[in-house]
């Protein structure tokens, strides 16, 4: 069976797929690829059916040696250099990797996460119907390390996309559209205005659990404690500091701080590429985005 030997694992490389659905009542969040658009684009480029595993590469570099093959691969997400045995390969379109060849995914100049897809998907033992890694809870495959073997699966193939994916520099300013609630009434009018009017910046401490922001403290109208209640990916939660964070794919299923609003799912995915210092602005509405 075709597999890859990990020669260099990078800061954090995870096996991810489309995520877990329907397990929140057990305290299990969705997880899955953070940049879902890049995940789907990679799947199309190699002809994978929906839901198969890929590698989510944080920053890089990552180096893999192919044993077996040939296999069709593609890199999407952050704009990185792809090297195959000393020769460049295009980012955002498929390429073949043969037995014994070594693939290197470089470190991006902008953005954070690249997605490495292979026809058949990455094989791993499913946990709650998904091969997605959840390092926060110790669920799913562990982050890759040097010497690991990554097996190519035999997942169902579909139509291979020949049109290349446009991969470019990650933006240095994000506009996040969202809907107010469910606890926006816990904030004063001034606090709600501040969410939209302030210039927020992504903090270094951000991770797959949530994107933490720098900016002013949002003024509360209700200062009491909130009973823990369900939260979702993209929820804008405001802890005791008054400075919001936006939950990512590994978010908790419940939380005890008020959620002032929820970011549009597609916009929330864009935070996957937001490095520390990137400017974030909110544009909120009382109407759902769908």
TrEMBL record:
Residues 25-290 form the Carboxyltransferase domain. Gene3D superfamilies: Cyclophilin-like. It holds the Pfam family CT_A_B. The keyword ATP-binding applies. InterPro entries: CT_A_B, Cyclophilin-like_dom_sf, PxpC. Its EC number is 3.5.1.54. One of its GO terms (molecular function) is ATP binding. It is an enzyme of class 3 (hydrolase). Signal peptide: none annotated. Keywords: ATP-binding, Hydrolase, Nucleotide-binding. It comes from the Bacteria. This is Allophanate hydrolase subunit 2. It comes from Cutibacterium avidum ATCC 25577.
């Amino acid at each position: 069976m075709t597999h890859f030997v990990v020669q260099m694992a990078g800061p954090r490389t995870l096996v991810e797929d489309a995520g877990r659905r329907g397990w929140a009542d057990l305290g299990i969040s969705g997880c899955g690829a953070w940049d879902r658009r890049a995940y789907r684009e990679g799947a199309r480029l190699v002809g994978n059916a929906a839901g198969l595993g890929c590698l989510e590469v944080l920053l890089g570099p990552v180096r893999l040696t192919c044993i077996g093959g040939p296999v069709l691969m593609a890199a999407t997400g952050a704009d990185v250099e792809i090297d195959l045995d000393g020769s460049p390969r295009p980012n955002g379109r498929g390429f073949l990797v043969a037995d014994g060849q070594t693939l290197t995914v470089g470190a991006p100049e902008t953005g954070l996460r690249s997605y490495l897809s292979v026809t058949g998907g990455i094989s791993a033992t499913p946990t709650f119907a998904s091969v997605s890694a959840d390092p926060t809870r110790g669920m799913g495959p562990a982050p890759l390390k040097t010497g690991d073997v990554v097996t190519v699966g035999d997942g169902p193939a579909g139509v291979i996309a020949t049109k290349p994916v446009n991969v470019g520099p990650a933006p240095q300013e994000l506009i996040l559209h969202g809907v107010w609630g469910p606890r926006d009434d816990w904030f004063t009018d001034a606090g709600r205005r501040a969410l939209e009017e302030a210039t927020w910046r992504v903090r270094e401490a951000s991770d797959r659990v949530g994107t933490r922001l720098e900016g002013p403290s949002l003024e509360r109208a209700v200062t009491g404690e909130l009973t823990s209640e369900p939260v979702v990916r993209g929820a804008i939660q405001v802890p005791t500091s008054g400075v919001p964070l936006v939950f990512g794919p590994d978010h908790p299923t419940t939380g005890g701080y008020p959620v002032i609003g929820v970011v549009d799912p597609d916009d929330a995915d864009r935070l996957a590429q937001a490095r520390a210092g990137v400017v974030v602005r909110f544009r909120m509405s009382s109407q759902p985005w769908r």
